[in-house]
Known about the structure:
Chain A has about 300 residues and is an alpha+beta fold. Chain A has helices at about 65-75, 95-110, 120-135, 140-145, 185-190, 195-215, 220-225, 230-235, 240-250, 270-290; strands at about 5-15, 20-40, 40-50, 80-85, 150-155, 160-165, 170-175, 195, 255-260, 265-270, 295-300, 305-310. Chain A has 2 domains: about 5-165 and about 300-310, 2-Layer Sandwich (Ribosomal Protein S5, domain 2), CATH 3.30.230; about 170-300, GHMP kinase, C-terminal domain (Alpha-Beta Plaits). Chain A contains 10 helices and 12 strands. In chain A, helix 1 runs parallel beside helix 2 and helix 9 packs antiparallel against helix 10 (about 270-290).
Amino acid sequence: MKxxxxxAPATVANVACGFDIFGFALDYPGDEVIxxxxxxxxxxxxxxxxxxxxxxxxxxxxxxxxxxSAMLRHLKHDGGVELEVHKNMPLASGLGSSAASAAAALVAxxxxxxxxxxxxxxxxxxxxxxxxxxxxxxxxxxxPSLLGGFVLIRSYDPLDVVSIAVPGSLWCAILHPDIEVxxxxxxxxxxxSISIPQAVANWGNVAGLTAGLLTSDFALIGRSLHDGIFxxxxxxxxxxxxxxxxxxxxxxxxxxxxxxxxxxIFALCETKEKASHVAESMLAACKKAGMRGETIVxxxxxxxxxxxxS
Amino acid sequence: MKxxxxxAPATVANVACGFDIFGFALDYPGDEVIxxxxxxxxxxxxxxxxxxxxxxxxxxxxxxxxxxSAMLRHLKHDGGVELEVHKNMPLASGLGSSAASAAAALVAxxxxxxxxxxxxxxxxxxxxxxxxxxxxxxxxxxxPSLLGGFVLIRSYDPLDVVSIAVPGSLWCAILHPDIEVxxxxxxxxxxxSISIPQAVANWGNVAGLTAGLLTSDFALIGRSLHDGIFxxxxxxxxxxxxxxxxxxxxxxxxxxxxxxxxxxIFALCETKEKASHVAESMLAACKKAGMRGETIVxxxxxxxxxxxxS
Lengths: 310, 310
């Protein structure tokens, strides 16, 4: 029975000013999915490990199987695929857990079937999984998890995914506090419309962050890492957010904001050493706010999802 | 009596998706201003040539003198400066006429006083002139007129002006139809707020245009040159807009939109030859729509305002 195991990494979406358009991949944590050719048709879900029984085992609701179903329909594939999901990352953490499972499942299945599609062509199927997971087919986690690097979703209709080169020394510190924020809850608190001055301020930052990354202008990256639109509302769901962000900035981060819809908080830093120091400061502030938490210190992962074994 | 003559170029503001944040300078047309040291204090306006008597001769209302007044107050300069404005560009054309007069006046006066300020430091005084001219202290014409090149206003508070490098072969075609649109009228028709999906679509384009320019990705520049927010309303003030824009795109422009608030229409092109061809097609469409018009074919002017004689 042919089988392929693939890994897809956690991701930071939004990246302060880039709601629904920016995301980047981390080196770890990530999910692994094993895809096997089995008799019959369609997608079955053999097991989900590491989720403490919390994820849906119904193939119509689990993001790994939803994504692969969409892909098989597109390919008009009439064989059967069985998936086994190994969750190695926290749920509802703001680190793109649902996206990583979908991306790993797609890359494993694509390899199993002889690579009929490119990584870029897999993005829409992973978006379908996001629609099931949180109600919105956003691409700012799934695209970087599949492709790696820092990704711009220039347009959703038609889908236009653009890779943005980043300075080699750019590192990320993450503080994941031991609480959960469901993405669908976090999307419910966001505004329905914004004023023109708010919009102008935000597109200034979006252009500034893009230019800062492409020209390795760290000061410009830092000045552009602001979200005056969604962060104020969403941060209310994360106790201690202000003090943890403040700790990141005071210990040398270029900028800091919620990762996706939180509760994880990311900070971009000029070097690995600074990111390590920033992560420690964020963890200390988290503990001071009365929460346990864990840190991640990672470069920007340029590979994205990979086949590990076949 | 010491005197300095300076030239400041026309500019294209907004650049489709970049309302209030993007602008670039053209090689021509532009305004010239002569600044002279005279006895007494403050700014006087000796003459305005080429405006057919339409611009205010009150120094408190003309953008050249308003800008220089703000500068002299900042410098606590207690001498007198007399200005003579040579308007060489059409009024209410969407090409930054008020900005060019202010920029030329500032650069001439700054040179007259021994260059106490950098070009970048002159921007806020020119913005004061824009406030008088159209009610809003926007910087997307004055900054490129002073600094040259393609400019991002990342933030207005605090003011943060960032130069964006552009591909060397990038050229611009302009069609200036023989009608006028007052900037303050054009600002009145714009929306007060926008939906989140509209905002997301626009910040995708803002990031895409920035990335396209910095990586010389002409296709990405073209895909990003869209304004779904303001153009539909503002285009109603410009008869024939749709057919002129269509002519530009069909004859090979990367993208096309209103220059500032119109009535001029710009098109960015990959080469000088394409820009010449596109300009001809736009003019033909303008005539077909029953209007006279003139064309400009220009590279992106990297110099900005310059002293021509002192």
